Amino acid sequence: MFIVNVEAAIHRDGKWLLIRRSEKEDHAPGMLSLVGGKCDLEGVSRDILERTLIREVDEEVGVKIGGLTYVNSSSFVADPGFNVIDIVFLCGVESGDPYAKSPDEVDEVLWMSTAEILANEEIPEYLKTNVGLAEERLKERVFVK
């Protein structure tokens, strides 16, 4: 059995939106990450990944996102020992300015360039990989226009 988690690689003005996870979180407290969260059980439904991501981003940092583009998926074992499938989407901000709306989940909001993320020793390798892959999708999106 897996938990399904979605994350938003939100890009604006050459930077990526990262959060510092609350120290109250069970998994990766105090670590830098993308914004996101777990899918709820819904029975039969449509667009659960997209709707979950839109809801989680609004709940955690108070912005509306759009233009969701699939980046990648992976699996890992969370700190409490749960198996997780993680799906990352590239997104843009449609409205609002991000802030730590949910103090139980978010301690801080940061904007960082790809170069800053890749050079930061505090940022885990999987996050660097996800941002690198999102950067590739972003370049594909710009090229298509």
Description:
It is a single chain. This protein is an alpha+beta fold. The protein has a single domain (3-144), classed as Nucleoside Triphosphate Pyrophosphohydrolase (Alpha-Beta Complex), CATH 3.90.79. The chain has helices spanning 48-61, 114-119, 125-144, and strands spanning 3-12, 15-21, 32-33, 35-38, 64-77, 83-95, 106-112. Strands 1, 2, 3, 4, 5, 6 and 7 form a seven-stranded mixed β-sheet that branches. Strand 1 and strand 2 (15-21) form a beta hairpin. The mean pLDDT is 92.
CATH superfamily: Nucleoside Triphosphate Pyrophosphohydrolase
Taken from the alpha-carbon principal axes, the silhouette is: globular
User: Which CATH architecture is right?
Assistant: Alpha-Beta Complex
Count of separate DSSP helical elements? 3
- Spell out the helices and strands N to C: EEEEHEEEHH
Helix content: 25-40%
List the domain count as a whole number.
Answer: 1
Q: Radius of gyration, Cα only, in angstroms?
A: 14 Å
Task: Give the averaged pLDDT, no decimals.
Answer: 92
Number of E strands = 7
User: Beta-strand percentage?
Assistant: 35-45%
End-to-end distance, in Å? 40 Å
CATH fold-level assignment: Nucleoside Triphosphate Pyrophosphohydrolase
Oligomer: single chain
Largest sheet: 7 strands, mixed
What structural class is derived from the secondary structure elements? alpha+beta
Top-tier CATH class: Alpha Beta
